Amino acid sequence: MPDQLPEIELEDRGSKGRYLLRGPDGAEAEMTFTKIGEHQIIIDHTDVPDAFRGQGAGLRLVTRAVEDARAAGKKIIPLCPFANAQFRRHKEWADVLKQ
Question: Whole-angstrom Cα distance, residue 76 to residue 79?
């Protein structure tokens, strides 16, 4: 049985922030975002190092952003190519996608 995946951390720095997964070896998978006003965020970048490959880390980061946006009544603009591809795959996220 693989080790339990680490919890996703949220670092909020005012107008910017990131969701973060820390690996046991110090590796960090992250997805950065920028807030646009009170009701929108732009996902600008997702970085998943090799230590996290094949574990669904990037998808977990985007999913967490979707859950948080849904809970807060926000819309997401996925400028990051990875996040954009995930939104195309997950039609159930349409409610938080900025059209």
Answer: 9
**Please, are residues 16 and 32 in contact by the beta-carbon 8 Å criterion?**
yes
Q: Give phi and psi for 26, each to the nearest 5.
A: 90, -5
By the 8 A CB rule, do 44 and 34 touch?
Answer: yes
Collapsed DSSP state (helix, strand, coil) of residue 42: strand
Closest CA to 83 of 36, 35, 33: 33
Helix (H, G, I), strand (E, B) or coil at 66: helix
Condensed to tens digits (0 to 9), the pLDDT of residues 43-66 reads 999 999 999 989 999 999 999 999
